[in-house]
């Protein structure tokens, strides 16, 4: 009896796990098998380049994740810019287009949604036409909401680098920026001393006037330190560009989402000195190292980027004193062994990866120089043979 119950439970769990109700990448190839009229379905036809679609994306995703607990509603997203079959089938006129199939046992009775582009608005629309109840999952946000009461405490903190968005609730560009800014905030939410914040400048007009905000959205960066003179950010409003900007200001090497960049640790100006160091005679090593140190002092490096740059000097010094190539190989082996430890903290793991990338760069230069020398030697041998 117990085995029968257990088998039934496992089978039921497998059915639930394989019965997807949120399809973020539905195509015409699967459309009719997924949306067959057995359940009401809401679809969004979008284009990746569409600003309104980008603003809507987190709302649709929230709805999609929420219907997984309902089991009676299908939510799907279709890249209609790529999928011309479905674009023509629905006679698409613009992006985003949201449609609801409310009736069972038919796939032709689609109702177009023209309401507010929020998860709450979509839930009300679905419930009105299907009588299905959907409980939205809570919104997780990493953007600090500012007011008159907390602005100075958060933004003027001398130990914090703060990026502030001045927005207006009615502003379309602000709505487009919102999911991008959320990605930026998530990138830095575990980094002490970096804050991504936003303030309703329509509501708190005096603060907007104080910081000379004349349009929406406006992004201003307030550096750490006693002098909190803001710098306006006027580049791309995509998360990747804002993260690159913040990395430069704060001195970090993070990718969007908070993971390390693929070449984390590397500093472009120091790469040049590393090349000179490895390709020069050992008698010139110390003068190159000193020149590299002087360059670091002249560069406006800070934070983790400064630590990364100074590690180049450490590698140069130890390379000269501890056996050259043997030192590089020994250090790489040691780091690889350390990275296999399961008890490593994320902070220590990241620092090891940074060091590994820098040492690998030195080793790569050495290997490439060896291959060049070997190629020259082979060419000379061929000439002698001829």
TrEMBL record:
Domain Thioredoxin: 17-131, 133-297
Isomerase listed as a keyword: yes
MF (Gene Ontology): protein disulfide isomerase activity
PROSITE patterns the record matches: THIOREDOXIN_1 (PS00194), THIOREDOXIN_2 (PS51352)
Keyword Disulfide bond: yes
Catalysed transformations (reactions): Catalyzes the rearrangement of -S-S- bonds in proteins
One BP annotation, GO: protein folding
Pfam family, one: Thioredoxin
Any one annotated GO CC term: endoplasmic reticulum
Coiled coil ranges: 282-309
Family: Belongs to the protein disulfide isomerase family.
Name the UniProt record assigns to this protein: protein disulfide-isomerase
Organism from which the protein derives: Galdieria sulphuraria (Red alga)
Taxonomic lineage: Eukaryota, Rhodophyta, Bangiophyceae, Galdieriales, Galdieriaceae
